[in-house]
Amino acid sequence: MEETWRAVGALSEREIRKRQELCGKEQEELTGFVLGYSSDLPEEALGLALYAHFVVVEAFRRSGAAFRKIESGKIERTWKDNFGFINDRST
What we know:
This protein is an all-alpha fold. The protein has helices at 2-9, 13-26, 28-38, 43-63, 72-90. The mean pLDDT is 84.
């Protein structure tokens, strides 16, 4: 992961935009989810959320692992399950 963070940090603005567009095409539902749930955040937090999403997608791409599209229903179920898990642990 460290290698991916560094590689992303070394990309040109042009290359970042190109890969962000590819990310949106490859993982349209997941990218939409990240945008939708982070759009109300302050600008710095939004930037961090989008950057983290981009780096994670790049890490999968670089790993050579199968990169299947994630469907919106699966994203929402996982979000709710994880949200419930976090709330249960904090009480």
